Amino acid sequence: MGWFSKSPNAMREKALRGAPAGPLRDYLSVPLPDPSTPLDELPLLAVDLETTGLDPTRDHVLSVGFVPVDGGEIVLSGARRVIVAADAEVGQSATVHGLTDDDIAAGAALVVAIEAVL
Question: Which of 17, 18, 35, 118 is the most exposed place for a label (fewest CB within 10 A)?
Answer without folding.
Answer: 35
